[in-house]
Amino acid sequence: MSRAGFENRHDAVLEAIGREITHGDLAPGDTLTLEHIQNRFGVSRTVARETMRILESMGLVTSRRRVGITVQDAAAWNVFDPRVIWWRLDGNGRDTQLRSLTELRVAVEPLAASAAARNASAEQRTRVVELGARMRGLGERGLLADFLDADVAFHTLLLEASGNEMFAALADVVAAVLRGRTQLGLMPRQPVPEALDAHENVARAVAAGQDRRAEDAMRALLGEVREAMVPPDTGQLSLD
Amino acid sequence: MSRAGFENRHDAVLEAIGREITHGDLAPGDTLTLEHIQNRFGVSRTVARETMRILESMGLVTSRRRVGITVQDAAAWNVFDPRVIWWRLDGNGRDTQLRSLTELRVAVEPLAASAAARNASAEQRTRVVELGARMRGLGERGLLADFLDADVAFHTLLLEASGNEMFAALADVVAAVLRGRTQLGLMPRQPVPEALDAHENVARAVAAGQDRRAEDAMRALLGEVREAMVPPDTGQLSLD
DNA sequence: CCCGATTTAATGGTGTTACCTTTCGATTCA
DNA sequence: TGAATCGAAAGGTAACACCATTAAATCGGG
Q: Do the Cβ atoms of B56 and B17 come closer than 8 Å?
């Protein structure tokens, strides 16, 4: 019955302050006190303290005696912490976060595809081909919502099949980027044929265990993102 | 005066339990209770609770009423959390962690070099060339300790100069891999000339702002890690 | 009278204890 | 088999002593 995701008091406070810091509403050097937080959110000192400890462990604040809780500079943040990523993705940090994540995708996904070609299970190999075909079908029929789901599943599968748990840990984030990009209208209304081909190329290479080809195909799929990332003016960038 | 790093009670408990989980001494599904922790470490309930909150925020445990604190499966861990990485790097997880990180380096560093060629400041450009030259001097004279320091500085600089804060956040980890690898005797006693050339190639490309060349040079520098990662038998892999 | 050094006092996190509430697995009983 | 009950353990509140830190106040020497 509680508001989505805010199971306990901590989450509410954490969410609020985490957002404020990552969105820049609280600037580095600003200080809070536990009492401040208690009053503002109507929570006990215990809750305030435990929340601060979590924020501290994410690198968003430091806590010192007599001085209070100090907001840290962005350089100290655990920028790979999923919550930090989410917060930055829907606040002021969105722009740099999207750029960073896209660049990270360009770095990681080709290697993940390569690793998947070596390490994927039999089921994963058949599934990746299925998903490639499914994307073609949905894409050609213009069923964008379903197409997006398949796209997310495709990239998630490869990251997980890579056998590298650090790659796999990026799956949720990549999904968020794909979805967020569509929401923002950065995608063409109908997937371009090249994108469909590219996905099927990757799928075939992975299924066949050809790691080098899978890597190259994924790199082709991600396209010339270097140029695409600078000007978001043309509606034709299809860098999934 | 306190023992390195264990400033407060939390850190001691966190360190101990975090290690036990990431090292596999505590298996997924195992449960603890706060009382258990209080007794074992002689700390108050508050400290036990706050420590658990941090572990929970790292995905290492979940806490449920009536059931206690349950150790999570590795799939739920925040594998990018620096502390999780450190712990895995000096325990049972070392092997998979080193492989994962090396694969991550191969993915990220070429793109970081490319980005650095585009975004580095004037000072950073001159410094990267200096470091390349310094590595040659030290390498040829066989001053391994200093060479390693310069090597770490070189890779750190590029990651930071990339302008991508997620790349920059990996600097400490890359440094740990470089140092750890040397400690483990995985490096040749004298840097091979190819490695020295490779570093200077990267440095020159970055300094000249040639992103494509910097990317390729870094990829060459990292070498054919795919093969090198499988058998650690030959002492000749120089994949920095 | 001014400035640096030393003492003092206020502040706010650290750590502890005690207590009540809520949840939910397990036991019991129909 | 299923429903009512019990109780273990976390969730949450409150009040405390403690102590590191900082800033103000005081003091002393030039």
A: no
Torsion sign (Cα): B182, B187, B193, B194: negative
Q: What is residue A30's predicted lDDT score, i.e. its pLDDT? A: 97
Contacts of A156 in chain B (CB under 8 A): none
Q: In the prediction, which pLDDT does B99 show? A: 92
Q: Please tell me the distance from the alpha carbon of residue A181 to that of residue A238, in angstroms, as a whole number.
A: 10
**Three-class SS state of B223:** coil
Percent of chain B topping pLDDT 90: 78
Domain range list for chain B: 9-76, 93-229
Residue B131 to residues B124, B150, B151, B168, B190, Cα–Cα distance (Å) = 10, 6, 8, 18, 18
Is the pLDDT confidence value at A184 over 80? no
- Report the distance separating Cα A97 and Cα A86, nearest Å: 9
| Rounded distance between C-alpha atoms, residue B5 and residue B30, angstroms | 28
* pLDDT reading at B230 higher than 70: no
For the segment A63-75, what is each residue's pLDDT rounded down to a tens digit?
Answer: 999 999 999 999 9
Sheet of strand B61-64: strand arrangement = B31-32, B68-71, B61-64
Task: Decide which of B139 and B228 is more confident.
Answer: B139
For residues A5 and B218, give the distance between their C-alpha atoms in angstroms, rounded to a whole number: 43
Listing DSSP states for A145-183 in one string gives: HHHHHHHHHHHHHHHHHTS-HHHHTTHHHHHHHHHHHHH
| Per-residue pLDDT band at B95 (split at 50, 70, 90) | confident
B-side interface with A, Cβ within 8 Å?
A: 10, 46, 49-50, 53-54, 57-58, 74-75, 77-82, 96, 99-101, 103-104, 106-108, 110-112, 114-115, 164-169, 211, 226
- The residue of chain B with its CA nearest to that of A164 is B100
B9-76: CATH class: mainly alpha
Q: Which helix (H) or strand (E) holds B53?
A: helix B45-57
Please state, in angstroms and rounded to a whole number, the distance separating the CA atoms of residues B167 and B105.
10
Closest CA to B70 of B82, B50, B54, B52: B52
User: Which residue among B54, B100, B111 places its CB closest to the CB of A107?
Assistant: B111
Average pLDDT over residues B65-82: 97
Predicted pLDDT of residue B240: 64
More confident position, A237 or A98: A98
In this structure, which CATH number among 3.40.140.10, 1.20.120.530, 1.20.1530.20, 1.10.40.30 belongs to the domain A93-229? 1.20.120.530
Q: If you average pLDDT over residues A162-171, what whole number do you get? A: 98
pLDDT higher than threshold 70 for residue B193: yes
Secondary structure class of B192 (helix, strand, coil)? coil
φ and ψ at A25, to 5 degrees? -65, -30
